[in-house]
Amino acid sequence: MTGPTAPMSALASARRKTLSLAVACCLLAAACAQLPNTALLMRSAPPNAVQLDGPDGPLSKQRSAAILAEIKRKSGSADVLEKHVALEEAIVGSPMVVGNRVSLLQDGPATYQAMFAAIRGAKRHINLETYIFEDDEKGREFADVLLAKQGEGVQVNLIYDSVGSLKTPKPFFDRLKDGGVRVVEFNPVNPLKAKKGWQINNRDHRKLLVVDGAVAFLGGINISNDYSTASASALRGSSNPSSLGWRDTHVRIEGPVVDEFQKLFMSTWAKQGGEALPAGEYIPELKAAGTQIVRAIGSSSEDPYSTIYVTLVSAVTNAEKHVYLTNAYFVPDPQLLEALIDAARRGVDVKLILPSHSDSPLVFHAGRSFYDVLLDGGVRIFERQSALLHAKTAIVDGVWSTIGSTNLDWRSFLYNDELNAVVLGREFAGEMQAMFEKDLEASREIDPAAWNRRSPALRLKEWAARIWQFWL
């Protein structure tokens, strides 16, 4: 073999070897990762009184107790808060903050409209953190708006995930940089660009926008044309994920808890080598904007354990009335599986809304491989029809709710940086439950008898996908 062909062949071979080595390293790292023993953590958590924070700092013990007592009175449950909110307080570490306004945003169009309005109204700075930032019509619209604000003197800081945005060409981000936007690539795929040890398996799955340190958006929605069509606009009867509207959930938050989301962004920014963001400039004094109690929970692969995981398992373990979960990628670990089944067996109404179609067939079939044991345990499973489900939400006992980026799978709990908001109170939980019931109407319940008669081909797909559950 002569000419340039031989070197090119050698280069291709070297690339394949490098990729194989990278995959092997990922699998080895995954094999070493473990989830925490939630029962041990909950038993070791000190039974301290729950401490609430307000716009001016921690509230008195008497004021905190009075607010929680009022929530218990309205919820009709005397023990739910003592059972898991105090444990969450001890385990998570971030404050539960009063005085916030939380607005539900369903699907991409409504979310993008609210985000654009906030960005266009920015006066000082915009912090955006996203897993996927695509170079498509919606991505370019976001880029144009961000560049316009940067041109007005509003500092824009962007964190995007290297793997999530792998298809986005370098010139797309170069254009943002040339316009003055500060851009940080989270854990670059290219090891030569890594700011510290190469951590290809650890990804930034968060979706966070903070404008002027005063309003925050978070949930499951990336920046992509995929979210441009609402779930209500789905093509009826279609099984092609590319033709389905995406069903997702985001929230808009105002009030003093926005400081906590801003701090989480700034922490990631600093760890990834971003230019210093002065706290005095980026964390303003915020006044009460509403009556809702919110906790910001950020999990990172660098943490001793996933605080979001422990929080969720604690809430399910201590549920008294109902557990309603909606999730796009459901591959539960043994502890979460046991918590759901135990709750159902003690009389708690446990319902799961999961996808009927997915952009990730492997995860879809791995999740379905757990249906048998869940159905046998009394858990009711519904699959969302005529839309591609991407939401990640939970409601427990009509008083505890969470919305965020966290899927119910090993990857979210072990390897990803994730972000959730926990909202305490009956009013917001009522809004969440209304949304859940609307999704139920658009879902088909899995009948245990019919499920037992599914085809051998489906069983084979479930078995094959289950083998890879730890690395999905």
| CA(first)-CA(last) distance | 41 Å
Considering DSSP H and I runs of 4 or more, what fraction of the residues is helical? 40-55%
- Mean pLDDT figure: 85
CATH homologous superfamily designation of the largest domain: Endonuclease Chain A
Give the quaternary arrangement of the chains.
Answer: single chain
> Helix tally?
17
**Helix/strand structural class:** alpha/beta
Low-confidence stretches: 1-32
Rough outline: globular
Q: In CATH, what is the class of the largest domain?
A: Alpha Beta
- CATH architectural arrangement of the largest domain: 2-Layer Sandwich
Largest sheet: 18 strands, mixed
How many domain modules? 2
Tell me the total number of β-strands.
Answer: 20
- Work out the strand percent: 15-25%
Rg measurement, Å = 22 Å
Topology-level CATH name of the largest domain: Endonuclease, Chain A
Summarize the structure.
The chain folds into two domains: 239 residues, Endonuclease, Chain A; 182 residues, Endonuclease Chain A (Endonuclease, Chain A), CATH 3.30.870.10.
Structural commentary:
This protein is α/β, with parallel strands linked by helices and 472 residues long. The chain has two domains: 38-99 and 295-471, Endonuclease Chain A (Endonuclease, Chain A), CATH 3.30.870; 101-282, 2-Layer Sandwich (Endonuclease, Chain A), CATH 3.30.870. 41% of the residues lie in helices and 22% in strands. The protein contains 17 helices and 20 strands. The protein has helices at residues 5-32, 38-44, 61-75, 80-92, 107-120, 137-151, 170-178, 258-271, 279-282, 307-317, 334-345, 361-368, 371-376, 410-414, 426-441, 448-452, 456-466, and strands at residues 52-54, 57-58, 96-106, 125-130, 155-161, 182-186, 203-204, 208-211, 215-219, 246-247, 249-254, 292-299, 322-327, 349-355, 380-384, 388-389, 392-396, 400-404, 416-424, 443-445. The strands form two sheets. The protein has an 18-stranded mixed beta sheet that branches. A hairpin with a 2-residue loop joins strand 1 and strand 2. It is globular and about 60 Å long. The two termini are 41 Å apart.
